[in-house]
Design a protein that fits this description.
The chain is mainly beta. It contains 1 helix and 29 strands. The strands form 8 sheets. It has a 4-stranded antiparallel β-sheet with strand order 1-29-28-27, with no helix packed on it. Strands 2-3-4-5 form a 4-stranded antiparallel β-sheet, with no helix packed on it. A 4-stranded antiparallel β-sheet has the order 6-7-8-9, with no helix packed on it.
Amino acid sequence: MLYQLKIIVFTIILSACFQCLAGQTIQLLSSGGKTSIRGLSVVDDRIVWVSGSNGTIGRSIDSGNTFKWMVVKGFEQTDFRDIEAFDETSAVIMGIAAPAYILRTADGGESWKVVYENKTSGMFLDAMEFWNLHSGIVIGDPIDGKFFIARTFDGGMSWRNIPPKNYPAADSGEACFASSGTNIRKLNQQEAVFVSGGLSANIFIRDKKILLPIIQGKETTGANSVAIKSSRIMVVVGGDFASKDSNIKNCYITKDAGKNWIAPLTPPHGYRSCVEWLGKKKWISCGLNGVDFSKDDGNNWNWISKESFHVCRMAKKGKAVFLAGGGGRIGKLSFN
């Protein structure tokens, strides 16, 4: 009996130790609103901006403890699926369609200026990415069989379409998902890569279009997000957003710049709309049924929260990691 008691106590202690070793939890900062948040930009450990449906923007300058919420006048019905913030006063937001807009603020969101408008039939913007304070890119769904791309070289104050002859060619039924603003990422100081989904799912690296092994073949399937550790090491996540709990072909890793792709030993636990590299071998990924964390370069993923989030981003200048999703939900990664 004493031996059995010792075993039970040892098991409890061991379980507690494993929980301590796991060490990651999600602290819920905000929820209960009507806004679906897909745009998230973390400037540093203190400054956080979010954007979402119903023309809604949020800004925190105290590490997410409080948020100032605002609705962009004249854009109350616009879904701002991506945001890029430069500091506590300057940011760029992307409205996806009908027509597509990009706006910029220089006064903390008190006023916004339209810096880009596109009324082309079928125009649908998916995500933005900035290399630095000046140079940025926005990508949109295919028009006439080619992905749309525009560039800025003045911090988002003005944008211009690249020549249509240089637009990347899309397969039939191929598009991008405006799910987290992370299907396009900077590869180095000059280049970016992006991923697609739908009937065909690919990654576009330099002038190469590489078919991904991720699940594809339906409008709801494919790659949603890519994160870059180096020019050779990348992780792609996605799945089928119509089957949020399915982990079939939802995550792949390359260690040779896309030549070969390997599946994790333990994949994320469902459809995932965003993935972020946190430094060293640590990664985080989120989706409709929760959040996963990896400590071994994406080979094994631990389900650390079942809270639903669309996007997760690490501070550009710092270590803080924030998440955002439907119902005005905002969270922060904590290490116990």
